[in-house]
Specification:
By secondary structure, the chain is an alpha/beta fold. The strands form 2 sheets. Strands 3-2-1-6-7 form a 5-stranded mixed β-sheet, sandwiched between helices. It has a 3-stranded antiparallel β-sheet with strand order 5-4-8. A hairpin with a 5-residue loop joins strand 2 and strand 3. Helix 2 crosses helix 4. The longest helix has 27 residues. The chain is elongated, with a radius of gyration of 23 Å. It starts with a helix and ends in a 7-residue tail after the last helix.
């Protein structure tokens, strides 16, 4: 995290959160500064150590350090959650659709997958519900990430015994589409129109119109090229998990907390901080510079304001349409072959 971004966070917390505002005790002595408290919290998130590991660096006791962490995560969620855990706006979707077009997947807005976070101090009564093959309790995070590792969707808190399908049944990832409040996306693949954006997934996800999986055993050059391209692009979400764990080691190490709500606040705060860092470094990290959209590209996709008219059950059926999934996948195979098939060493 750059110094300017860290100081911006400290300043916002100092201005808006009472716990971080300067105060004095009964003897008139100044209390701990917001910089000390935020530094203690950030070091716990970044290094994943215990609350007693920063006592010499910022001169805080273990209890005070732990309190700083929980007030810090609550403040981050309250102040920055609406902006950095938002659903994609029409402008965001335009950029994502443009990048998907360049990578051979028109209409693709990200990749979806799940990650497990080990819960070391899981209560004994819940251990069977949160443990699976390894015998260690875990809590699952479902995310949607794009090409520059921004996390657009985060659903955390389901027990580790669930697989991706069970989590999908409980996830709110398609709630806006089903309720008719998501921006309407129109795009063309291989000359055919489509009206639902989709995510790239691994093989466990169902054959819905909003999911595109790889081909497990490709038998032709077209299918092999599609499988290679899909698996390469879908690594965005895997890279997002890796970068999140590398930047904030607290989500890589087993959680020592007992309270599940506090664990959830830490995970959400870490995702917000991750997105803030991505935004701060986007100009240097992105591999696609999109100063504007050419007219020819706008003809191939568009994003319109949502219309709440229509039947909720019909929209749900459209999301789960298997025939639309197979048609889209076949058109994507042809599109990728047309776009990249002439390049050498594609096989």
């Amino acid at each position: 995290m750059n110094k300017t971004l860290f100081l911006r966070i400290v300043h916002c917390l100092e201005q808006e959160v009472d716990y971080f505002k300067p105060s004095q005790d009964a003897t008139g002595r100044s209390s701990l500064t917001a910089l000390q408290k935020c530094t203690a919290a950030i070091r716990q998130l970044a290094y994943g150590g215990g609350a007693d590991t920063v006592d010499e660096y910022v001169r805080l006791g273990e209890t005070t350090t732990r309190k700083c962490l929980h007030h810090f995560t609550n403040g981050i969620i309250h102040l920055f959650g609406d902006e950095y855990l938002r659903c994609p706006t029409p402008e965001d979707l335009q950029r994502l659709l443009y990048i998907g077009e360049q990578r051979g997947f028109p209409g693709m807005v990200g990749s979806i997958d799940c990650m497990h976070w080990e819960w070391k101090n899981c209560p004994s009564a819940w251990k069977g519900m949160y443990s699976r093959g390894t015998g260690k309790p875990t809590i699952v995070l479902e995310t949607v990430a794009d090409y520059d590792l921004w996390i657009w969707h985060a659903f955390f808190g389901t027990p580790g015994t669930m697989n991706d399908l069970n989590i999908l049944d409980r996830s709110p990832v398609f709630d806006d589409i089903i309720n008719g409040i998501a921006p309407k996306v129109n795009f063309y693949v291989n000359g055919y129109p489509y009206h639902l954006a989709y995510y790239l997934t691994d093989g466990i996800y169902p054959d819905w119109a909003t999911f595109i999986q790889s081909i497990r055993l490709p038998q032709s050059e077209k299918h092999s090229l599609f499988a290679k391209t899909q698996e390469a692009v879908r690594k965005d979400v895997e890279r997002a998990f890796g970068v999140l764990q590398a930047r904030l080691a607290v989500v890589r190490n087993p959680s020592n907390l007992w309270d599940k709500q506090k664990i959830g606040n830490i995970m959400r705060a870490c995702i917000i901080l991750h997105n803030m860092i991505v935004e701060d470094e986007r100009a240097a990290r992105t591999q696609y510079v999109v100063p504007g959209f050419e007219e020819s590209e706008e003809e191939r996709f568009s994003v319109n304001m949502p219309s709440p008219l229509g039947n909720t059950m019909d929209r749900r059926t459209n999301v789960r349409n298997r025939q639309a999934h197979h048609n889209l996948k076949n058109d994507l195979i042809e599109n990728i072959w047309t776009k990249f098939g002439h390049f050498p060493n594609n096989m």
